[in-house]
Amino acid sequence: MREGVKRPSLNLSSVAEASGAMPVEMLLDYLAIQLNGPKAEGKTLRVALNFSDTGERHLLALQNSVLNHWKDRPGAECTVTLTRAQFSSIMADHANLPELRIEGRREAFKELLALLDPFDPWFNIVTP
After folding, report:
1. Most buried one in 49, 52, 70, 103, CB count within 10 A?
2. Can you tell me the distance from the alpha carbon of 107 to that of 112, in angstroms, rounded to the nearest whole number?
3. pTM over 0.90
């Protein structure tokens, strides 16, 4: 404790691998945790995610600085078609986007990703 938290390097590929083993609903909950509420204030976005390899469809809805998700719900302003591997890659690094098929208002997906803060796994629990 006297020396503070030692921060080992974080391997982003291991983050992508771990997220590949989680259910999509859990990954979308993780996205909601990363939302920067003050930056999202006053914004409304609705983005559909279609997973081409699993056949799952989810709607992400940002409103009142809260990100919610539902399975198989219509009403998106853009639809992103991707694989679980591509989604895991995005989860590991929001800035490094793979080539994706996006229909509708393309900027909505990029705007949503810009509102997410990277998660610091080495945050202080006890130390100031």
Report:
1. 49
2. 8
3. no
